[in-house]
Amino acid sequence: MSCKGVKVDISKPDQRKKAFEKSVSILGGLDIILNAAGIQRRYESPDFQLE
Which of 7, 30, 45, 47 is deepest in the core (most CB within 10 A)? Predict the structure, then answer.
């Protein structure tokens, strides 16, 4: 098993396209893409806001 990564600034359209093309090249194709980017807020479980 191995892990591959592609660094990209998704706010720049040209970088998004290059990252997609590089991913396809590295993996030999793509079946699914998952966007796991986001903002993480840390709270203790009882204090975690649901909204």
Answer: 30
DSSP, collapsed to helix, strand or coil, labels residue 39 as coil
Dist. CA 23–CA 30, nearest whole Å: 8
Q: Which two three-digit tokens encode residue 2?
A: 């191995």
Residue 45 in 3-state DSSP?
A: helix
Q: How far apart are CA 1 and CA 14, in angstroms?
A: 30
Of 1, 40, 17, give the one whose Cα is nearest residue 9. Answer: 17
> Over the stretch 7-35, which tens digit does the pLDDT of each residue have?
999 889 899 999 999 989 998 988 887 77
Asked if residue 22 lies in contact with residue 30, where contact means CB atoms within 8 angstroms, the answer is no
Q: Which amino acid is at 51?
A: E
